[in-house]
Amino acid sequence: xxxxxxxxxxxxxxxxxxxxxxxxxxxxxxxxxxxxxxxxxxxxxxxxxxxxxxxxxxxxxxxxxxxxxxxxxxxxxxxxxxxxxxxxxxxxxxxxxxxxxxxxxxxxxxxxxxxxxxxxxxxxxxxxxxxxxxxxxxxxxxxxxxxxxxxxxxxxxxxxxxxxxxxxxxxxxxxxxxxxxxxxxxxxxxxxxxxxxxxxxxxxxxxxxxxxxxxxxxxxxxxxxxxxxxxxxxxxxxxxxxxxxxxxxxxxxxxxxxxxxxxxxxxxxxxxxxxxxxxxxxxxxxxxxxxxxxxxxxxxxxxxxxxxxxxxxxxxxxxxxxxxxxxxxxxxxxxx
Length: 336
Prior knowledge:
The chain is an alpha/beta fold.
């Protein structure tokens, strides 16, 4: 039976002496990883965020449950082996995969155990940011599809939400996708090399040459040596080049606000955090996006990193990004 690997960080019990548990809120923080979609990469980030939320006085009136899961197809035990007829999952499948999980999740231990969460905070990294925005749009556009899921905000980290194929790395992957024969067989070439390379050598390269810390090196080596993980990453990446192209969010983000108003709901608030030099985001498209959104100050915050945090922040900069995210959560949900 297929199983989806997840990480879950339930809230600690509220201090019943100072907080009325029946009047407190239960908020689900649903994290969506990038590509490769392995949630274990984000364990240091999510655990750091859990500790920061628990240590923030202004958030003690709210129960935050942090949850994140793999994207489908990146772990061999979550699917039947891929074949020419049963290919890896595309971006639309991943959106549906995340939506299905959201529909099933309920509040944990507390006075409202088993009830729907009061609000939903979506956090997405890279293509996970695209998935988060699309989930928010669909849930607000068609609330009947999941009436108990109420998206109230989103935090988009290093978001790849438009023209990904125009970025430095996207251009290379798109060239591979459009090259006759090569795009269709790229995964076979990669898998052949990775199958020949001993696991110990591969780990040494990732750890010593690429300078990944042990945590990241172990996850990367396990993924590279898996049966289908690399194929899933390449297949989904090429689909991202096809789907995340034209600037659909220019109108769709406005539609989100209109849909929320039409259904008498509060329009979600978004925090966008861009890298200063992100090889998966073209700087000029990022700057155009920021200029278009600057007037939406009531529900959109746009931040460009002033340092040099890389796109793959979960490898070495988890604590730094967790501190930023906890600050934004405090702004949105903190008690005055």
